[in-house]
Design brief:
alpha+beta, three-stranded antiparallel sheet, 10 strands, EC 1.14.11.-, 2OG-Fe(II) oxygenase
């Protein structure tokens, strides 16, 4: 039996960060050294994107990375955004990874899941560009369990955060060819606090 995901499994928060936090993002990204070729070992014809790691060096063991995030000199301000998300929208979530992705035209991500079935958790995606034209595309698409239909989509509007069940198949669409900017996101990956391997 397949799981039935719906648009109720996706929440979109507009004006989720302050103008001051947007300015801090702009400044931090202006000093970022991006790595190309993410995800590694993807599907055969996938076009990799730009990526850099922020926190979560012990993600494989599902350890909380909040202290690692706080200690990050350039990106520590993200903890305030994370704490607000936890207080209202993700109360049962343990932060296990934080990283940024960047995409230019043609770098669509493959359809994937952030959490395996049986490892429940949520992902929060912060759209980081301070301007985004609707015609540039770059939507975050959410699919049904069989990956045969789109059930929801989120345009990468500035200061927007999308929260979703990590088991939902999803993909990030790349910007249109007339977009002259990198589509930038920061992902906060989680596992439920009460989850433990048996």
């Amino acid at each position: 039996m397949t799981r039935q995901f719906t648009s109720r499994d996706v929440s979109i928060l507009d004006d989720a960060i302050t103008p001051d936090e947007q300015a801090k993002l702009n400044n931090a990204f202006s000093h970022t050294l991006w790595r190309y070729d993410w995800p590694i070992n993807s599907t055969p014809f996938a076009r990799p994107c730009w990526h850099f790691f922020i926190a979560g060096s012990k993600r494989e063991s599902l350890e909380c990375c909040e202290q690692e995030l706080v200690a990050n000199e350039r990106w520590g301000f993200l903890i305030n955004i994370w704490k607000r998300l936890c207080a209202v929208h993700m109360k049962n979530s343990r932060l296990i990874g934080v990283y940024a992705n960047g995409q230019t035209s043609g770098q669509d991500s493959p359809i994937h899941r952030d959490n395996l079935p049986g490892e429940p958790g949520y992902t929060a995606v912060l759209f980081c560009n301070d301007y985004w034209a609707t015609t540039w595309g770059g939507e975050l698409l959410f699919c049904n369990d069989a990956k045969t239909d789109v059930i929801a989509a989120a345009l990468p509007k500035p200061r927007r955060i999308t929260i979703f069940n990590g088991e939902i198949p999803h993909r990030a669409k790349s910007p249109a060819t007339d977009c002259d900017r990198l589509r930038i996101t920061i992902a906060f990956k989680t596992i439920n606090k009460d989850f433990n391997y048996d």
